[in-house]
Automatic annotation (TrEMBL):
Belongs to the thiolase-like superfamily. Chalcone/stilbene synthases family. It comes from Lactuca sativa (Garden lettuce). It is found in: Membrane. This is 3-ketoacyl-CoA synthase. CDD domains: CHS_like. It comes from the Eukaryota. Keywords: Acyltransferase, Membrane, Transferase, Transmembrane, Transmembrane helix.
Amino acid sequence: MIVIGIEFLQKMSEVTEVKPLISQSSSSNLPDFKRSVKLKYVKLGYHYLITHWMYLFLSPLVVVLAPQLSTFSPKNVYILWDHLRFNLISIIICSTLLFFLSTLYFLTRPHPVYLVNFSCYKPKEDLKCTTQKFFQFLTSTGKFTEKSLEFQKKILERSGLGESTYLPKAILRIPPNTCMAEAKNEAELVMFGAIDELLAKTGVNPKDIGILVVNCSLFNPTPSLTSMIVNHYKLRGNILSFNLGGMGCSAGLIAIDLAKDLLQVNTNSYALVMSMENITLNWYGGNERSMLVSNCLFRVGGVAVLLSNKSSDKKRSKYQLIHIVRTHKGTDDKCFSCVTQLEDTVGNVGVSLSKDLMGVAGDALKTNITTLGPLVLPLSEQLLFFATLVGKKVLRMKIKPYIPDFKLAFEHFCIHAGGRAVLDEIEKNLQLSDWHMEPSRMTLNRFGNTSSSSPWYELAYSEAKGRIKKGDRAWQIAFGSGFKCNSAVWKALKTINPAEEMNRNPWS
């Protein structure tokens, strides 16, 4: 999905470009006001003022009332009690109403969902596929024309993938053995490998898991992937199991959302979410360019996530789920058909990317960010955005739209590693630093595009680098066919010590 979101992000960059008021020659000796240190502190002061306005407003009030309260004597307390004694009915009614409303709130409020731990699958060394090995494999299959080989070579060189990504054994054979049995072997290797490590981390008994959600877009065997897990781990008979298919790279966050909703109505439960993609059965051996991109980008990977709604698990959990925002553009025919699995002219099955993909993805991304912004951005950023919107739409002022600073809402960004071009454009238009983009770029380099599990490899990278501190907020964002763009916001419940994750982190 190397082209996802480019058009929208390019439009954003075009909108934000304005002609300089001073020519380059006349301004060469002037300071860069946008990067002025004084302006930086003015903006920081503004954000601080708006964010803490309540405290700043109440502080003088407290100073004024403190001397009056200090003169409050026991005699005054007795007079107050004597006054209340003759208003017993009012007190009882108010107390009853307060008790009723408090009870109603505690019974209807959403239960907090905790992420106890997660485990990203790290394949064995014999599955590593260097660039040279990949090109030798492509040539030896004899299925690709010279133009197709050259095209795939260019895609891989520009993709951002490194020399240590992984492909399944069935693909690396000559010729590739893309059969159902090999696809099942790959699925079991990824699923059981990730879940075994997760259970070892958490110490949870498989019998205690009450909810199971698995997502894999392009491989949906019978019995299902969920049944394979239930059978392997001998999970209990009344488990609520769900198998999500055909939902693209954003399905991992959809699975989290489904598990969250189920945890709201099933008290004292654990939910196991398994996100993965299958490469074996979906290798494309034809010469349609729109279907060759997936061969170069997608690699083996998967993640197992354990969620809980038990209050007793809060102390040992890593994160708490704060928000999930889902955007679906499937009502539009153009959006619906922009990513389609089909056969080429000679019967080879592959995933075709429509020419409308960039515009569709950009629109979905814009809608998702617009919905998420009011939930996470500080009031200072919302006021600036609203002010520029009113000036532009109502007052017809010629001003550029204000792009909110999402760095004030999140400390960590886990952007789906679909390709280098996507990450470049998001970095530029959200004004992120190399530090913020490092987890996504390193994940693309080290593991490739692992589809729905890639945001979790990025979060694991931040943990391995010792970046996650208590109270930090992480933003996961992913795209998928249909067309969908989904976001998840997590809050760290504790500081992650990399030493405690040694040998249990894919980056160890």
